[in-house]
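Good morning,

Both structures are done.
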Amino acid sequence: MKKLISVFPAIILFFFTLYPSFLPAVSKVEAAGTGNVVINEIAWMGTNNSYSDEWIELYNNSGSDVVLDGWQLNATDGAPAIKLSGTIPAYGYFLLEKTDDQSVTGIQADQIYSGSLGNTAEYLKLMNAAGAVIDEVDSWYAGDNTAKATMERIDPAVAGLDSTNWATANASYADGLGTPKALNSTATDGSGSGGDAGGNTTPPETPSVCDDRTQRLNNVSEAEGAMNVYFNKCAFPQYASAGNEANYNVNFEDILIKRLNSATTSIDFATYEINLPRVVDTLIQKAAQGVDVRVIADSKDAADPHYAERFETMRLYLEKMKRGQDAVIGTEDDIVIFSDSPMFAVEDSAKRTEKGLPAGVTDIEQVTVTVGNSDTTGRLFVEAEEKSAGSYYGPGNQMHNKFAIVDDRWVFTGTWNFTVTGLYGTDENMQQGILDGNQNQIVEINWPQLAGIYETEFNEMWGSNALNPDPVASNFSTRKTDNTTHVLDINGKKVEIYFSAGDNAVGKMADVIRNEADFNTYFSIFAWSDQALADELKNKWEGSYNDMEGTLTGFDVKGLFDSDFWNQWWSASVDMTGRTASQTSVNNPNTRWNNPAPVYADAEIRKLHSKTMLIDADTNSDPTVIVGSTNWSNNGNNVNDENMLIIHDAAVTNQFLQEFNARYVQAGGVLQ
């Protein structure tokens, strides 16, 4: 968590040994000068155990112990406000844990504090006993809430207000990614592995083809049976089969809006998250034109400070959709919205008017209902699946789908959340049309029978096939049943469809590897913890299901993991690279590969968000691609609401291969 100790203190000691008369008469424990004690690491996102398990680390970048009595570490908004006490050793650390000494497992806190850090940013000031500001940081320049990766200081000698002096941790500890009371994983002395860091770090130089950011729409069709595949990042078209160049550098928002605008009768829209104004406006316009628009949106925990702001923004947009073009609830142009857990209106008048909503919310009735195990009072504007009258399920599970069904014909699906971060990265990029968001993939298919299967899934969550939902008949998550057709023939192409929870989608993936993979498997995955799936691939790679056993079979494996999860003990990346995990469990016993596979942490600008596997690509052995919203985990398979397509088609698989090859080379992989 610091640079290697400078040789400078040793030189000073040698000087004073030769010339003792120059020694000042001071204690070995002294107050440090400005900048000697710094804010070194911040777990503003909490840990994998709890979002409230926040912690802050100070570092003493001097050769003397520093007494912190009378010092303060305060946020300018008033919380937290920490009166420090104790001593921080020379070139040592001082760990502050929120609430109790359980925020960091196995490491004793130097001080306990109270007060939560904000999710979006805080302005922290470290002041000495005289009130002088010693160090400060005015924003969260790094860190990742999903991965629970801390914000680390790169160089203690560089100002905390310098945004380039912070990076996202990439080393694992018991509760996430970070280095409590240890050398920072992103330190500038070279001991950190900065190439594995998350989306806030600078990726390595990309291949020349990625310098071309021009949108390339090479294979798009409106015909029945069309399968249009789009990538928002670059691809390597030199790997295209004849006449099959991929669609890459594509603005997904434009593609989605075009598809929604084609609707004449109905739109069913399932979204994990949405905050794209143009998409919201398009849905409102289609409803005003008389198109039946039904929306299922995932509810979030509004009490979680790390999701509060984005969930608040989403609720403002959802209310705007519910009010329709005339901004009045209860009229014909309203969009009908439903969820897995009820949503309550945002009542802040300034935030409401900013989004074009009425300043007041008195036209939505205030109610008190049971959500999960607690009573909640608010203005309920999105109904949800009921446990019983006046009682709803909590928002703990995820309705993680991102699909649209248009006119009972087109299915639009993939890995992309309908958000600014998911496509552009920032609001500023959105205004300029710069696609610096998460890496994603989408597929749209024109086939009424496939649309009917997705509609069956939608209606199961909706509780009816009518315009209005039925909260009593509705079923989400583990309450759903396996009630859809799973195999279709689309103009001679075999397509399989599996939904979670209930269809054992990830288990079907393992079956495909075990029974159908003959030559190769390539994958890019956000989060992979499913052991059975990893074990089937291990057996193909080296002919053994056992730990540290096997001989290479000639089967080809290449893969990419989102860097935020590369070092997580449960990640398949640990097994595949033959590493010993920091801990194990019954479901993740750390079955290491005897011959480490050429798999890498991604090097994308932000997240590698795909959940995609290619099997026997560019062979004559049924080339197949697996794509959808499902992460390969217990939650993705057995808890969340998800959808997955398994497309058996050489051309579609080859288009995915063009994009995979670009991601793989960018991450440091070598193509044969």
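Second structure follows.
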Amino acid sequence: MSRGRQYIQFEGYFAENVLGVFRVIRGFADLRDLAAVSVPYEMAEHDTQACRVVGHQRELNEKHALDIKNYLEQSDNRFLPEVVLSCRVPVLPIDQDQRMVAAMDEPPGFVIGVQDDERTPVSIKRRYSSKTTRIQTIRMARQDLDQIKEDKLIRRIDGNHRLALAEQLQDDPTVPTKFIAPFCLILLGDGGNEADDYAESLIFHTINNTALPLESEHGLRLLLGQDSAYDMTPENEFNYSPELYLTRLLSTKLQGLPQPARERFSERPLTVLWEAARNLIAVDETIVDSRGALEAFADDLFAGLSDILVRLTVNHPSLCKTHSFLELAARIWRETTGAHEDRVSQSVQTLNSIGRWLGSEGITGLLNPVSPAQQLLNTFRAAQNRIPRKVFLARWYPPADAPKDGFNKANLRLEQLRQTLDNFQRTYGILLELIDMGTEEGGTFPIHQKMYEAIAGSEIIICDLTGHRPNVYVEAGYALKHHEQNRLIYLFEPQDSGDRVPFDLNTFKYVQISQAAEIHGKLTPEIKAILEDAGAVLEREIS
């Protein structure tokens, strides 16, 4: 291994048919040299073919790369697994007699080394002419490094974060071998060989996804975005992973939809399809009894989901875009019976009910992938946002000469109501806005549109039935239609011993007072109950 000014050179041991497939050179080299000669081939969309990708490497996590650099420079117990690179330089096999061997003439175990064909700036040669020595030398002129990187002749398969900042590592005179690490150079065909591009992607995928199931959009796109000429056969893929095969089936159907329809499946379609496929198979394993059964299941499911989405997005577009909507809809679809249209109607009816419930509670985000703690926090905050803030007062404005001192008593009740609501802000920090639009004096008058809107837009309704005004009763009835029963409070101050409300209020929040001064003591517990039922935490504020 050499870190000369003009050349970068390192050596390794050659092996043929590793795992029965690849030629590799394994050895040790300075991480700075490995970084200087290699590039990450980041995955991107194909230039001309839809649903195809080129490259394989994921986006760099700069913090992770910096953490590795700091670890290499500062840790006293440095250790790294081997960096895996692919070499996209044509090489010729060499036999024991230093002769080049045609591919058709290679008997197993006969090849003991390789040599580049001298068409690229990457030199790969045997170090010794011995019939038993398999040491190879890889050498590159520093003046050629820009071209080597531009042509992507040496690509990073595993170890991109280890190499990302390696060229910035500082020399340590006391430990000259401080950054020596193992490498594995896989010898593949030239850069234009698509079969070897696919081999690169598979190696990357195997290294990065064997510890955990396929759950990332990147990993799924990498497998499903390859040239179909190199895919597994349907039967082999079904046998390898029914979940992956179902994902591919649904993905293929999804790609056949118009763009607006595809967007209804959320921003991470392959991940959504994969998770739905995995969970649906876990629920009903009979659908994977055979490839034909799984394909029939996919056809039925996607036909239903397509129609469901068209009808549901009219009322609940945000629900349709949540992460787990597809699985939710698929589970509901599986529970329906009857003809196709009947099943679609049943599914839409159920999902509409769920959408209204989630939307009214402000917790549609429950279907998105967050940690349980974050989900609880989001739900709590949504509940806090639903705490009542507006209080609508339906009452009569008596004239100044109203009998039995009606005018003054009405003003006293209004003032006590205001003080009661103000006390909630002083005591608990909850601001309750009083909406007092009043009713007209005289006979029955039509309630104007703004009154209806104010009633519908308020969360607590207080109906002062004192005086038995017809318009107040109309407003109370309208409020009862648009609000939960426990959000309505009926207030009544009898004008004499025979004055009563002309209907049964036993099942409602009914507060009867003999004078306005009683409002604070009697109304406060009722409003507190409404706020606490909505999720408010009523703790006294510390001044």
